[in-house]
Amino acid sequence: MFKKILIANRGEIACRVIKSARKMGIQTVAIYSDADRNALHVQMADEAVHIGPPPANQSYIVIDKVMEAIRQTGAEAVHPGYGFLSENRKFAEALEAEGVAFIGPPSGAIESMGDKITSKKIAKEAGVSTVPGYMGLIADADEAVKISGEIGYPVMIKASAGGGGKGMRIAWNDQEAREGFESSKNEAANSFGDDRIFIEKFVTQPRHIEIQVLADQHGNCVYLHERECSIQRRNQKVIEEAPSPFLDPETRKAMGEQACALARAVGYTSAGTVEFIVDGDRNFYFLEMNTRLQVEHPVTELITGVDLVEQMIRVANGEALPFRQDDLTINGWAMESRLYAEDPYRNFLPSIGRLTRYRPPVEGPTQGGGIVRNDTGVYEGGEISMYYDPMIAKLCTWGQTRDAAIEEMRLALDTFEVEGIGHNLPFCAAVMDHPKFVSGDITTAFIAEEFPEGFDGVSLPEPMLRKVAAAAAAMNRVAEIRRTRVSGRMDNHERMVGDDWVVVLQGQEYPVAVQADRGGATVAFADGAAMRVESDWTPGQTLARLLVDGEPLVLKVGRLSGGYRLRLRGADLKVHVRSPRQAELARLMPEKLPPDTSKLLLCPMPGLMVKLSVAEGDEVFEGQALCTVEAMKMENILRAEKKGVVKSINAEIGGSLMVDDVIMEFE
Asked: What's the CA gap between 197 and 135, in Å, rounded?
């Protein structure tokens, strides 16, 4: 077995590989850029080598720098993770020439399958059903528009060397095809050093289901069942699960066998994923093959018990797979929520900065009989950089059934504390409660259809609202009792805590009576219903774990004047607990209105101004592109919300922008 391996990556996947290597008794080498000098993967590895400035094209994807780190440390093998050089044939060949093992497939398989244009041709020649499209190279935007029109809108514009949603756009008309081609080409060049683009028909209402394969150097190939990855935003997966709630055993077997046949056709070894789109009649079509470990591999590990990273290392060492297809049964259900530094209240735009609080849920078995796992590459006090993708963590849960796995995820998301940056945790929580998701009736259009105006929080249903009201009343009782015991009181000024309160939240008032005892409190509502609340929460704690009528409820708690900021299940609530007289007076208070920003274009995220599409004095129309801001390797086109005239432009190309910086003013 290898004594030392180098991880040619960063972030959570580098930390993930280090964990398996450590379990196997293998020493690890991390590489890092200036921006990652204090990163978690650097702290976890046995050795670390600096390889350059923050931009990936000057550090993590420079093959010569990685090779020098290998020579410097004497690493015998390299795990590439995902992204960066993981599907780069030249990197695999450089390692082979150096006599260093590549913990991945042969360079020939990378060349055949890693390139999406070539892979589709091979799949078609092998009799695999593929989506209609143009597989040749596209010279410019004019040709892209012509080809798109011939295929028929909508079309998918994709980077040949792409992955992770980078270099990918959906176009519904000529204008979007032109803009999408240019943005995809730029993103592909910046992220992968390869700006080749292809176009295919965008199949509406599909499911995205992928098969995990694992093959050794002795001719053995197995599939580890499927992952449902249909919950996507901008073609980037957000929620994944295994198995799929849609497949039947026959379709699962057919997809698995076809995936293995494709892998064998190109001499594939190591872990890989064959992605399919599946229609409502369970017809499936080859999409692409990822010749690397997938981001969402933990859900497969949770339902099969197989450590995929360990098996990749063993395969690279020449070992045979220790199991056969019949050994790989499905045990229970697993969910993964990708926690991104993207602000859902600002249309999911990137958010950078310092993690002032980062407290994930405890990993391992849960009280409900499930399992929690959190793959991460950050820590409290660390920074989210603008130079790399915005992933913070991958929160995974396992349960005996799909419903159990979802419930475990709900509690885990409510327990996860992240402060200091915008993040999509509330959105992930909202998905877990969405009726269509709970039913399993989902497609890749789920987010676009169910959140067409973006995400602006969740309105809790009445039963949950009453639980929160009861919890807040009980918590307020604890806080009030503490306030009566403050030291330094004036003599003969004993403060009494009443039983009657009015809880105000989400625009509703709940008059309640609170009767406390040593075990908790009973909260009675005006309609005669009562709830029992039990908790060991004390004022000042930012997380409250409660039992309300015997069912667990987890709240993130912040202090407000006269109440609390409570967050759960994707909702962010201002909760006021007042005496009846205070509630009466509060109803008379005027509501404060937000400032008028209708004539301003505000920067929605920190980034770099890369393009100005208008000039001062120009008349603009609704939907017209105004400028392009780049952040976290993604180009974001900001558009006019209504017709107007540009009065002034306060930004310049190449300039850095912060959140809410005024880019333009309109007359």
From this structure: 9
Q: Which residues pair with 271 in a beta bridge?
A: 214
Q: Which is nearest to 361 in space by CA: 316, 321, 417?
A: 417
Q: Can you say whether residue 219 is alpha, beta or left, with left for phi > 0 and alpha for psi between -120 and 50 degrees? A: left
Nearest by Cα to 430 from 454, 400, 396:
454
Q: What is the pTM of this model?
A: 0.83
Q: Which residues pair with 86 in a beta bridge?
A: none
- Reading the block at residue 45, the tokens are 């590895």
Given strand 662-666, what is the order of strands in its sheet? 600-602, 662-666, 644-649, 619-620
Which of 413, 521, 533 has its CA nearest to residue 468?
Answer: 533
Q: Identify the burial level of 574 via C-beta atoms within 10 angstroms of its C-beta, where 0-12 means exposed, 13-18 middle and 19 or more buried.
A: middle
pLDDT tens digits, 189-231: 888 888 888 898 887 778 999 999 999 999 999 999 999 999 9
Cα end-to-end span (Å), the chain = 69
Pick from 198, 168, 194: nearest CA to 180? 168
- Strand, helix or coil at 74? coil
DSSP reduced 3-state for 294: coil
| Coil vs helix vs strand at 653 | coil
Q: Count the neighbouring beta carbons within 10 Å of the beta carbon of residue 459.
A: 12
Round to whole Å and give the CA distance between 147 and 154: 12
Q: Where are the alpha helices (DSSP H) in 199-347?
A: 249-265, 297-304, 308-316
Q: Which residues pair with 339 in a beta bridge?
A: 393
Q: Are 414 and 361 in contact (CB under 8 A)?
A: no
DSSP element (H, E) containing 287: strand 284-290
Per the residue annotation, which of 241, 288, 301, 635 is the catalytic one? 288
For the segment 117-134, the average pLDDT, to the nearest whole number, is 79
Length of the chain: 667
User: How far is the C-alpha of 422 from the C-alpha of 430, rounded, in Å?
Assistant: 16
**To which residue do tokens 């244009």 refer?**
117
**Residue 561: exposed, middle, or buried by beta-carbon count in 10 A (0-12, 13-18, 19+)?**
exposed
pLDDT 10s digits, 405-433: 999 999 999 999 999 999 999 999 999 99
Contact 76, 98 (CB under 8 A): no
Is 288 annotated in the active site? yes
Q: Is a pLDDT exceeding 90 seen at residue 488? A: no
CA 618, CA 666: separation in Å to the nearest integer? Answer: 10
Please list, residue by residue across 326-347, b when 16 or more beta carbons sit within 10 angstroms of its beta carbon and e when fewer do.
eebebebbbbbbbbbbbbbbbe
Which pair of structure tokens corresponds to residue 425? Answer: 């945790």
DSSP at 351: -
